[in-house]
Amino acid sequence: METDPAVHSLHRLHFRGHGLSHTRQAQFEFLSGFLGGRAYYRERFGHMDLREIHAHVPIREADAELWLETFDAALADCEMDGPVVDKMRITLRRAALMLVNDVPDWRVETDREKNLEVPG
């Protein structure tokens, strides 16, 4: 995700927040608990409410789909497949799509100012 120009819009969302190193750590902590391991994220922040975590982030359906594509690519890179991975994909799809919201999208205003094309 960090070097792929095709996912630049997701990259921008993470830089607007706490940055990618924070995102990497938080995703590890969250996914550990989400997938049945130690709930590091809950231990650190007191909850694992995805909507609350992302409440300030403009997430459109195209963003959710793009995130899912990057996750699928990561699974493929790790050669992970099978029924458990298929079930995980279904669960992650449901979670990603429930985060789609109507939070004002600062990317649109920023891109209009720069006369750039905005996806989705």
Automatic annotation (TrEMBL):
Keyword set, alphabetical order: Heme, Iron, Metal-binding, Transport
An MF annotation (GO) of this entry: metal ion binding
UniProt similarity note: Belongs to the truncated hemoglobin family. Group II subfamily.
PANTHER family in alphabetical order: TWO-ON-TWO HEMOGLOBIN-3
Protein known as: Truncated hemoglobins
The species this protein was found in: Ruegeria denitrificans
